[in-house]
Design brief:
about 240 residues, TIM Barrel, binds glyceraldehyde-3-phosphate
Amino acid sequence: MTAPKLVAGNWKMNGRMVHLEEALGIATASAAAGDEVDVLLCPPATLLAPMASALTGSNTFVGGQDCHANQSGAHTGEVSAAMLVDAGASHVILGHSERRRDHHEGSADIAAKVQAAWSEGLVAILCIGETEAERDAGSTLTVLAEQLSASLPEGATPENTVIAYEPVWAIGTGRTPSVAQITEAHAAIRAHVPAGIRLLYGGSVTPQNAAAIFATDNVDGALVGGASLKAEDFTPIIDALKNA
Ligand SMILES: O=C[C@H](O)COP(=O)(O)O
C-alpha cells in the first residue's frame, strides 16, 4: 500500500501552552483531510506531551525536532528517542540545517540519531539540502548525494524514513526554488533512496505557493516552518496537499 502524503509542521523554538489551541485547529483540518494526508506537528520538546494529550483521538501525529544518539546517560539538556516516544511522539526530525548550523552536527552524528530513532520505532524525517554557495557553485546534486550517503544508514524503508529536501537558502527567507529546481533535486533524491520513501519539500512553503509545489513530480508533501504555527495558515496547506 502506498503511504499517504505527509505535511509536517516544524514549530522550531516557538509555541507555549497557550498555542495548543492552534494545534487543535490544525487537528480539525487534519480530520477533514481524512486518510489521504498524514498531518504531523513537531512542537518544542516542552510541548510534546501536552500536545499529544490534547490531540488524543485525532488523526494528527506528534513528533520531536531532534533526539540524542544515545537512549540515556550523562548528556545534559538532551532528549532521547525513547523519551520522545514516552511523550507521545511517532516521528522525529533529524539533521535539520539549524541543528547542523547551531550544534555542528555532521552526517555521522545524524546517521547515529537515525539509528536511535529507528530502534525506538520512530519515523525519522531526515533533512538534507544545499547552501546558497553550494547551489551557486553548481554542486547541489553532489551535496545531496553526499548527505544521503553519509547520514542515511542501511535499513531505510517507507515505514521508518521520510526525506525532507530543504535548501538552506530557502528556509525562513520567503525565497523558494523554481519548480524545475525542485523537480531536479527530488528526482536525484528519489534515485538514491529505497522505493516508496516519501520526499517532502521544505523552505518558505506558504498557502500561496503550496499547490504549485505539491504538483511537482516526486513531491509527496512538505515540511513547513513558519506557516505551520497558525491553523489559519496551515489549514490551506493541508487542503492543497489533499487536492494535489
Ligand atoms: O523545518 C522547516 C523548514 O526549516 C522550513 O521553515 P520555513 O517554512 O519557515 O521556511
